Amino acid sequence: MPAQGVPHLDEIRCMCGYLRLTLNFPISFESTIMQIIQSLHTAILITDLDRSDYFYTHILGLEKVERPLKYPGIWYQIGNYQLHLIVAPTVPTDKQQEKWGQNPHIAFAVMDLEIIKSELTAKNYPFQASASGRPAIFIQDPDQNIIELSQAFADKI
């Protein structure tokens, strides 16, 4: 018998050359209240701002956009998506929770950030508010990948 909450294979059937898997979930899964509606940006760490700016601006032809944050970096607009370069002289990821936003991460727009924060708090799931003061939080997946959840605004949807 599999562990509680772990799906297990109930049957395998081969039908007309296709493999059919039937999974049995021993517990029910409730739908999530997180309504992720858009990927916002990818943040990557760089060591040399000028060298990276030259590459992304002159080699790839990306358009630089205004960046309201104080720590060193550059943002580029790619359609409705952004690439954020963050200067980190040593490049390793800083796992200090208050610095999650200055690490490589993916960002999603969400419908109601306050509901998500309440739900995470109720589940004792750690999150970090954005140090910039904007309506965003950072969480980690089980492999410590950092995920930003930002409040969607009507004019951006």
UniProtKB/TrEMBL annotation:
It comes from the Bacteria. GO terms for molecular function: lactoylglutathione lyase activity; metal ion binding. InterPro entries: Glyas_Bleomycin-R_OHBP_Dase (IPR029068), Glyas_Fos-R_dOase_dom (IPR004360), Glyoxalase_1_CS (IPR018146), GlyoxalaseI/FosfomycinResist (IPR050383), VOC_core (IPR037523). It holds the Pfam family Glyoxalase. Keywords: Metal-binding. Residues 38-152 form the VOC domain. This is VOC domain-containing protein. It comes from Dolichospermum planctonicum.
